[in-house]
């Protein structure tokens, strides 16, 4: 039997993507591991790890990170799950509006929240002063553990809310009716039926929140003060002027971080497997109108949580319009802050769009190709691509930054200080969102649709561009917008990689915050928030839904 | 222009798992040919090999004299209708139907004219500018048919095209499909697991099981003279009763183990010998008699279902064997449960198989695929 051997285009694509991942992800990570166990003379050493585990100071940063991450995770669950329950079971006034605000809260850069809370509750914060003069009570300090916890909880509870809301939409109303029919209702039903049904989702949300909290860099940097956490420590080990330059130690710390997040990830996966089942609601839950005091209570709860979470953004917006004189605010309102912001940080805004859109274009291209390979061309190479593409999900942003610097600051490939390396970093970190949504969409498209096109005489390439890609469009676009929002609010990787020429909006905000130039910082933060809001509106328009899942 | 399809010694493997081993089949030009079998029998696999979506591990596929094994699916000039219709959701009905013609770089006027013609033929012209998600299942099915036919394919392949429709629409659509195939005069290969549907639409049917073709013939052939026990039980309902064939004075006498004998005139000469057999009696091939002195198999009625035209009786014989009997409904009352009856046999209609069920022992079996 004769067989014509054609060079399949997809094999080339597959190899190219594999090559990219090997060069820009696997090689830097491997390099990181190598540098953590070899000293500058090239001899094997465990000195860096000994240094870490030998000093209680370093161990305490690890312990601090754990404490604050676990506490933040618990609080987000305690707020997020009941909020999702109330939203999906009862009629809440202004539901759509509140939901958009909640999504907005989750989308803003965490360190902007931290900055705003300092302005509100810091040593000379607005609320602190107001409470002291009115009630004579001195609030506990915002700096350190409390502050980080507050900011992270308010930043991350929307994720739990959105995840669990999604799960509750898949609960069939008849399940609730059946349990009521068997005498299980109210709080008992919540714990016996609804909570277990949402368990897989709750576990997924728990993992996401923990990872975010553990890897968060900006919040502890601003509000942590003496309370040192692990990601900040990694950054300091690499960059700080006193301990700086100890690359081996920085690498070792990074390796420890990866090990920890991997263990947490695997533990979660194991637990989640025990709760795995699928649901599909034929009749979604019908929301009811709550009665009497309970109705008042749930409204207070819903509005209260959203108000507190959204307060920092509103306050920043307000600050941005205040009149300034030098660095200080003076009475009255003006657009001065915006004027000077555009003057001093115009290039940062430009950079944000150039770098962000560049990364986004690559992300969309890669995501479409990877999704097609993973779903339609199952083989070993493509499985490897699938796994590699999800790796950055469990690697803290500052570690990605350091790994890239270490790998590309020497010949043959010097990329440090360029825009290219920032784009690469963002692509690696934010690609998983778009891949996941593209894969999910493609999995729902029956392959027969493509076969129909082929049987009607369309070539494979033509079928891909005329049939497959347009049908995936919704999934691609909604994933891309989520990637975009996280790109423009990204700090932890960018702060490792930027130079004056490649400064982005988030970095500019950080710089002006740390210089104490509140007016400009507020104006820039508002510009960033506005970009986020516009992106989200586009997302909702495209995906025709008010649901966002990360 | 339609073609005849010749398949010689086809082999299909998934890894080490052989789905089809050594299958040969001839499909005539312009006929409505159905592959019928239980799920997993390889019928869809075979269809997709013809279409070119499944690789061929062995054997030769011909359209007329042209070997198509190595021809790209896009170049085979095949129209295909899928189980889920595979309508392009992001295109209007018109764009869906026109898709194949556009790929052939036909002129604008031709595309417009041909698209209109087939949309009219399938009664979907009024929906031309609608998006598919605003069509019902039956309408989507018509779009799929129009789209497959408009390119004037050599062969129309249909993979369980009606299984997603409700019962009433299914009956309606199968008439539409049959008529359209007649009008266009195209060779049609149709896959289904629904034997009633197969009988209703097909010129000829190939009954498949476990990757093998059991019998090829007209609906009448395979229903009345099934080639083996599998075909007898898969097509329609059959009571399978054990028995013995004896030769008495040169005449073949069929003895039921339950105690009843009939003389058979249509046993194949070479099978006229003493042997154990399996007898297939369809429910309507019994003659139900209530008179206690009547001749026949003794049975007791367990229950009955009145279905208007016919009444179905479920009964058991003395040895515990359960049987089903269909009788045209009578004007007087349904025979009560527990009644002892005598079952006569319409002996010219029943079928007799060897003990292993592999062969029909009677004359008149037609299997176009028999070597």
Explain what you see.
The complex is a heterodimer of chains A (550) and B (371). Chain A has helices at residues 9-37, 47-54, 56-89, 95-107, 110-121, 126-135, 145-169, 173-181, 186-215, 218-223, 230-239, 247-274, 292-320, 336-376, 380-390, 397-408, 419-444, 447-455, 460-488, 494-497, 505-514, 518-543; strands at residues 322-325, 328-333, 409-410, 413-414. Chain A is mainly α and 550 residues long. Chain A folds into 2 domains: 17-42 and 321-550, MetI-like (MetI-like fold), CATH 1.10.3720.10; 55-311, Orthogonal Bundle (MetI-like fold), CATH 1.10.3720. The termini of chain A are far apart. Chain B is α+β, with helices and mostly antiparallel strands and 371 residues long. Chain B folds into 2 domains: 5-226, P-loop containing nucleotide triphosphate hydrolases (Rossmann fold, 3-Layer(aba) Sandwich); 230-354, OB fold (Dihydrolipoamide Acetyltransferase, E2P) (Beta Barrel). In chain B, 23% of the residues lie in helices and 35% in strands. In chain B, β12 and β13 (260-264) form a beta hairpin. The radius of gyration of chain B is 25 Å and the shape is elongated.
């Amino acid at each position: 039997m004769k067989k014509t051997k054609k060079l399949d285009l997809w094999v080339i694509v597959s190899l190219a993507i594999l090559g990219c991942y090997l060069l820009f992800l696997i090689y830097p990570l491997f390099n990181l591991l190598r540098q953590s166990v070899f000293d500058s003379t090239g001899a094997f050493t465990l000195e860096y790890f000994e240094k870490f585990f030998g000093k209680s100071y370093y161990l305490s940063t690890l312990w601090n990170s754990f404490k604050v991450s676990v506490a933040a995770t618990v609080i987000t669950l305690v707020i997020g799950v009941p909020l999702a329950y109330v939203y999906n079971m009862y009629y809440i006034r202004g539901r759509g509006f509140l939901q958009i605000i909640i999504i907005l809260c989750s989308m803003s850069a965490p360190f902007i929240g931290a900055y705003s809370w300092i302005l509100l509750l810091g040593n000379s914060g607005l609320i602190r002063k107001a409470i002291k003069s009115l009630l004579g009570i001195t609030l506990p300090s915002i700096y350190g553990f409390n502050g980080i916890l507050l900011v992270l909880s308010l930043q991350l509870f929307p994720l739990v809310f959105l995840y669990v809301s999604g799960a509750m939409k898949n609960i069939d109303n008849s399940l609730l009716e059946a349990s009521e029919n068997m005498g299980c209702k109210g709080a008992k039903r919540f714990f016996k039926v609804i909570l277990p049904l949402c368990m897989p989702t709750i576990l997924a949300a728990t993992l996401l929140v923990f990872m975010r909290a553990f890897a968060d860099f900006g919040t502890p940097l601003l509000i942590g003060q003496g309370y040192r956490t692990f990601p900040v420590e990694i950054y300091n080990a690499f960059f700080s002027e006193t301990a700086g330059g100890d690359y081996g130690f920085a690498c070792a710390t990074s390796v420890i971080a990866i090990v920890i997040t991997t263990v947490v990830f695997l533990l979660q996966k194991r637990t989640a497997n025990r709760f795995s089942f699928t649901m599909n609601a034929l009749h979604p839950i019908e929301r009811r109108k709550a009665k009497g005091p309970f109705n008042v209570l749930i409204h207070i709860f819903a509005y209260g949580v959203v108000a507190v979470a959204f307060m920092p953004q509103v306050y920043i917006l307000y600050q941005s319009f205040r009149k300034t004189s030098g660095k200080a605010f003076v009475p009255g309102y003006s657009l001065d802050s915006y004027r000077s912001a555009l003057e001093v940080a115009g290039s940062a805004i430009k950079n944000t769009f150039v770098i962000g859109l560049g990364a986004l274009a690559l992300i969309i291209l890669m995501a479409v190709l990877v999704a097609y390979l993973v779903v339609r061309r199952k083989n070993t190479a493509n499985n490897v691509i699938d796994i590699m593409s999800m790796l950055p999900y469990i690697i803290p942003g500052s570690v990605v930054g350091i790994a890239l610097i270490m790998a590309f600051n020497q010949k043959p490939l010097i990329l440090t200080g360029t825009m290219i390396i920032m784009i690469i970093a963002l692509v690696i970190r934010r690609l998983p969102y778009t891949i996941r949504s593209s894969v999910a969409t493609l999995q729902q498209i029956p392959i027969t649709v493509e076969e129909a096109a082929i049987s009607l005489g369309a070539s494979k390439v033509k079928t891909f561009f005329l049939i497959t890609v347009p049908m995936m469009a919704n999934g691609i676009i909604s994933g891309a917008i989520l990637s975009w929002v996280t790109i423009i609010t990204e700090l932890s990787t960018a702060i490792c990689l930027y130079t004056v020429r490649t400064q982005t909006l988030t970095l500019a905000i950080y710089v002006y915050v740390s210089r104490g130039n509140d007016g400009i910082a507020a104006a820039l933060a508002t510009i960033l928030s506005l970009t986020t809001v516009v992106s989200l509106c586009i997302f909702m328009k495209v995906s025709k839904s008010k649901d966002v899942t990360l | 222009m339609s073609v005849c399809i010749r398949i010689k010694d086809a082999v299909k493997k998934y890894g080490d798992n052989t789905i089809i081993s050594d299958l040969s089949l001839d499909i005539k030009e312009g006929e409505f040919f159905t592959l019928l079998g239980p799920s997993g029998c390889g019928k869809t696999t075979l269809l997709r090999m013809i279409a070119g979506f499944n690789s061929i591990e062995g054997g030769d596929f011909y359209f007329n004299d042209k070997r198509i094994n190595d021809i790209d699916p896009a170049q085979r000039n095949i129209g295909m209708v899928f189980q889920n219709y595979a309508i392009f959701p992001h295109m209007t009905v018109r764009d869906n139907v026109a898709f194949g013609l556009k790929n052939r770089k036909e002129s604008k006027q031709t595309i417009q004219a041909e698209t209109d013609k087939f949309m009219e033929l399938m009664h979907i012209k009024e929906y031309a500018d609608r998006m598919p998600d605003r069509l019902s299942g039956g309408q989507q099915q018509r779009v799929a048919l129009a789209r497959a036919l408009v390119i004037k394919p050599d062969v129309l392949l249909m993979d369980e095209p009606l299984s997603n429709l409700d019962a009433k629409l299914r009956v309606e659509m199968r008439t539409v499909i049959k008529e359209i195939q007649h009008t266009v005069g195209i060779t049609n290969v149709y896959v289904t697991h629904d034997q009633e549907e197969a009988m209703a639409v097909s010129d000829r049917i190939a009954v498949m099981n476990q990757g093998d073709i059991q019998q090829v013939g007209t609906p009448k052939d395979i229903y009345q003279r099934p080639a083996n026990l599998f075909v007898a039980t898969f097509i329609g309902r059959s009571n399978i009763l054990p028995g013995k064939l004896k030769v008495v004075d040169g005449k073949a006498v069929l003895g039921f183990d339950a105690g009843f004998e009939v003389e058979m005139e249509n046993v194949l000469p070479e099978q006229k010998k003493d042997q154990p057999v399996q007898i297939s009696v369809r429910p309507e091939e019994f003659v139900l008699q209530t008179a206690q002195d009547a001749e026949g198999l003794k049975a007791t009625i367990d229950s009955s279902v009145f279905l208007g035209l016919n009444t179905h009786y479920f009964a058991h014989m003395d040895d515990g064997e359960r049987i089903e009997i269909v009788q045209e409904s009578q004007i007087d009352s349904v025979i009560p449960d527990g009644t002892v009856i005598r079952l006569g046999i319409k002996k010219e209609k029943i079928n007799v198989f060897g003990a292993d069920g592999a062969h029909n022992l009677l004359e008149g079996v037609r299997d176009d695929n028999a070597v």
